[in-house]
Amino acid sequence: MSPATKIDAVDFRRALGRYASGLTVISGLDEAGPIGFTCQSFYSVSMEPPLISFSVMKSSSSYPKIRATGKFAVNILSEVQESVANQFARGGDDKWVNIVWKPTGQNNPVIDGSLGWLDRKIWAEHDAGDHVIVIGQVHEIHTEQTDTAAPLVYFDAQYRTLANEARVL
Questions:
Q1: Is residue 137 within 8 Å of residue 145, measured between CB atoms?
Q2: Residue 33 φ/ψ region, left for φ over 0, alpha for ψ in the -120 to 50 degree band, beta for the rest
Q3: Regarding the domain delimited by 22-160, which CATH topology (the fold level of the hierarchy) does it fall under?
Q4: Extended strands (E) in the chain
Q5: Could you say which residues of the chain have pLDDT below 50?
């Protein structure tokens, strides 16, 4: 395929939907209160220093508020938090209604019931078409110790859960 070949947006989205990913809520806190949005494009970047990354649409109304604070938390959602993922995926300022949260050491909100969270400062941003790639340096982490909780997974435009069966590779 030559670089000049036009990729159909529907086909592109459908192809990317074949890649399973976990779901997170990127959260922050400014003078007006907690901020957050659902994000499935989250991944690790570096162990030394500890860096992570996520991508966010340039049209996001939440991310500019988080950017202004210079810090954020990533909440890793569990399979029972589908409604949380839906609530933070929509627009508007009422995303935190009925959400129980506590502050990290940097005062970022972490959502109760999440499998874990990472608190970080913004390290860098990179322009990427209609998105911004954000890299954060991790300063604090917490994981829930549980044998029963599983991650909330998104695959083929649907929420999924993992079978609780570990396999040795």
A1: no
A2: left
A3: Pnp Oxidase; Chain A (2.30.110)
A4: 21-22, 24-30, 33-39, 42-46, 51-57, 71-76, 101-103, 109-111, 116-128, 131-143, 153-155, 158-160
A5: 1
What is the tens place of the pLDDT at every residue in 47-70?
999 999 999 999 999 999 999 999
pLDDT of residue 148: 64
CA distance from start to end of the chain: 35
**Domains of the chain: which residue ranges?**
22-160
pLDDT at 150: 86
Does this model's pTM top 0.90? My answer is no
For residue 84, the surrounding DSSP H or E stretch is helix 82-89
CA distances from 22 to 3, 70, 76, 94, 102 (A): 31, 24, 8, 24, 22
Long-range pairs, 125-130, Cβ under 8 A, ≥24: 125/67, 128/55, 130/57, 130/58, 130/59
What's the token pair of residue 37? 């949005």
User: Residue 147: what pLDDT?
Assistant: 64
Per-residue pLDDT tens over the stretch 38-47 = 999 999 999 9
Strands 116-128 and 158-160, bridge-based pairing? unpaired
- Of 68, 43, 60, 57, nearest to 136 by C-alpha is 43
